[in-house]
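Subgroup meeting minutes
Present: P.N., E.W., G.H.
Scribe: E.W.

1. P.N. recapped why we're keeping a running log of single-chain structure predictions: easier to compare across weeks, and new members can see raw inputs and outputs side by side.
2. G.H. added today's entry (164 aa).
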Amino acid sequence: MSTNISQFQSPFLVTSRKFPQNPVELEPVLATMQNDIANVVNSKTTGIYDKVQIAIANRYYNDADPTKKRQSYRKVYTLASLPATGTTTIPLTFTVTPSTQFVLIDGTVESTTVSVAFTPWNMSLGEDAPYLRVNRTTNNIEVTTISGNWTTFSCMIVLEYILN
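Output recorded in log:
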């Protein structure tokens, strides 16, 4: 006898459990415990950040079939230095389709003295800040600056996405 985890169950395990002495009563308790452990471990986020595409434990809703969650992926990109002015592109290494959905576009810009987040994309690009976006048409990440103040900065970009 095993218990199915509810999609709204807490991702934490009980910290104590009473085990019956009778082997017949013990078997369902152990089966339930094993199922609870597997479900909680499998629902945790994979803490791997690498420069290759990694399937992560985050799963997203599926309007077409609610019983089959959509798999998400993570990939890290880096630049040794930001452009003096203009835009530097980084190929995504996967093709964006109409069904590709980005769930996280994030990153940091760092020098030897300061670390900052990318500035949210602003079409006027009026501030002297590093900007980040994914161009779905060209399949590129675009990092844009409007001054040479950022050339001594490197960056790390983290994308999480659903491919279908």
